[in-house]
Specification:
Elements lengths: L2 E3 L11 H4 L13 E9 L3 H12 L4 E4 L15 E2 L7 H8 L1 H24 L8 E7 L5 H14 L5 E3 L1 H7 L8 E9 L2 H14 L3 E3 L6 E5 L2 E5 L4 E9 L10 H4 L3 E10 L6 H4 L5 E4 L6 E4 L5 E8 L3 E3 L2 H12 L8 E11 L6 E6 L2 E5 L5 H18 L19 H24 L1
Parallel strand pairs: 2-3, 2-11, 3-8, 5-13, 11-19
Antiparallel strand pairs: 1-16, 4-7, 5-7, 6-7, 9-10, 10-11, 12-15, 12-17, 13-14, 14-15, 18-19
The structure holds flavin-adenine dinucleotide.
Flavin-adenine dinucleotide binds next to helix 2, strand 12, strand 17 and helix 11.
Length: about 425
């Protein structure tokens, strides 16, 4: 089987559900001159856009450089599932930090969800189309654990979750693959490409400058400032914020050594029309409990959008569409004859501990990245914390300090990530076989 390399920034947007339903692209010109700014942000995904928006709102002069187009990477092609938490498992965070600190971090992650929601509403961002509800589902009978999880989050974290028993779950999701569920009434799903495009327009309205098709090539110190060089221009600034996601490319080697690019896949069917209700009878986004989970939802125009799978190799299988069809028909065999309209892959940036990096790496050079599979809430949060740190010497970002930069394992990192994924998948299959 042949594979193709994933994600080469600088190319046009991929054909995805999101690009088929996107607002007009920004079409910002590339940088062709020398400019100056207080802050230069590298990368125009949800992390970079959120940082730029918050900083421009606070009156800072901001330049954002994007190698491709706004939200060209993970931020413009993800599952669209928005809920609190981080890519690291909540129980692992609590084990490391204790309940009190874990709850504070969880509250931060909730703030990220609320920022996304409130900006979408307050700024009337077009085409973001938020739809309510999040539903976590188990692939084997697991009532006790799911009830305990809902109880713990509700009582100890102050976040209301409702247990959904099998019978009720199957009225919402018409598949005998799932047994127990936990419903999150505050979660939702949305079009994060349109969110980024809307916020990018707001950044410009606030006089922030955005340059697309402009890769940051090098960074050097010049007196008290930094100089970032691009192919046809340069930016002189006091502060640099690196927000390159999983697409680290040698611009800043410290980050390249500490980020693991992990690939994952999404497919979208044709509109299902009246058949949609035979499959899913809720507006909620659905995610299963496995480490490399399946996540799916009905889009506002009635398609099944289905995501899953993971690879540390950053390679896209040649038979990806077939693989994705196998995935969703194993849950919804009633959809075996539907047409697939688009299938795509994307790269996420992970730290080994699966928590974001938000810290000053050197004098005036910040990392705001490693959002993992939870970027739609963590991106807006990072923007807020970054602005607090730079504008009013805020310290809330220090709550993430226990999660330091970790070596990505070099060539062994992706192999280790694949091994963990396959091991976890094997364990989950065993549980399914044993308990189902
Ligand atoms: C298939 C998929 C499904 C996902 N599903 C969900 C989900 O349902 N819910 C959720 O919360 N999260 C999800 N995620 C994760 C989420 O999308 C990411 O965490 C988030 O988008 C990362 O944002 P980012 O800004 O850090 O990176 P990106 O969005 O990857 O943006 C980084 C940008 O930096 C640019 N860049 C890189 N190098 C340079 C350079 N040298 N100069 C200039 N620009 C540069 C790139 O072109 C890119 O546009 C998913 C991700 C994928 C791939």
């Amino acid at each position: 089987m042949t594979h193709s390399r994933m994600d080469r920034p600088g190319q046009p947007y991929l054909d995805t559900y999101y690009t088929r339903t996107m607002e007009p692209p920004l079409d910002a010109a590339p940088l062709t001159e020398r400019v100056e700014a207080d802050i230069c942000i590298i990368g125009g995904g949800i992390a970079g856009i959120s940082c730029a928006y918050e900083l421009a709102s606070a009156g800072k002069s901001v330049v954002l450089l994007e190698a491709g187009q706004i939200a060209w990477g993970a931020s413009g092609r993800n599952g669209g599932v928005v809920g609190p938490g981080f890519a690291a498992d909540g129980a692992a965070i609590e084990k490391k930090l204790g309940l009190k600190a874990a709850k504070k971090l969880f509250d931060l992650s909730r703030e990220g969800v609320e920022i996304f929601r409130s900006y979408t509403e307050k700024l009337s961002l077009p085409g973001v189309d938020m739809r309510p509800g999040g539903l976590l589902v188990s692939r084997y009978p697991d009532a006790q654990a799911m009830q305990a999880y809902a109880r713990k989050k509700t009582r100890e974290y102050g976040y209301q979750l409702n247990y959904v028993p099998t019978e009720q779950l199957r009225e919402l999701v018409h598949s005998d693959r799932y047994f127990d569920g936990v419903y999150d009434p505050q979660g939702f799903h949305a079009h994060s490409l349109n969110y980024c495009l809307g916020l990018a327009r707001e950044i410009r309205r606030l006089s922030g400058r955005i340059f697309e098709n402009t890769r940051a090539l090098s960074l050097e110190r010049q007196g008290a400032d930094h100089l970032i060089t691009t192919q046809n221009g340069s930016v002189r600034c006091q502060t640099v914020v690196a927000c390159q996601g999983g697409l680290v490319d040698g611009f800043y080697r410290t980050l390249q050594r500490t980020l693991l690019p992990i690939g994952t896949f999404v497919t979208v069917t044709e509109p299902l029309g009246s058949r949609a209700q035979e499959v899913i009878n809720t507006t909620a986004a659905i995610v299963d409990t496995r480490m490399a989970c399946d996540y799916f939802r009905l889009t506002p125009d009635g398609r099944l959008l289905w995501g899953g799978g993971m690879t540390g190799k950053a390679l896209e299988p040649a038979n990806l569409e077939q693989q994705m069809r196998r995935g969703f028909t194993s849950v919804f065999p009633q959809l075996s004859d539907v047409k697939i309209d688009a299938t795509w892959s994307g790269l996420l940036g992970y730290a080994r501990h699966r928590m974001p990096y938000l810290r000053e790496l050197h004098d005036g050079i910040w990392a705001a990245t490693a959002l993992g599979g939870h970027g739609i809430n963590v991106g807006p949060l990072i923007g807020r914390l970054m602005a607090e740190a730079l504008v009013e010497n805020g310290q809330r970002h220090k709550m993430l300090d226990p999660y330091d930069l970790t070596w990505n394992g070099s060539v062994f990192g992706p192999l280790a990530a694949d091994a963990v994924y396959h091991w976890e998948a094997l364990k989950e299959r065993y549980y399914e076989w044993r308990f189902a």
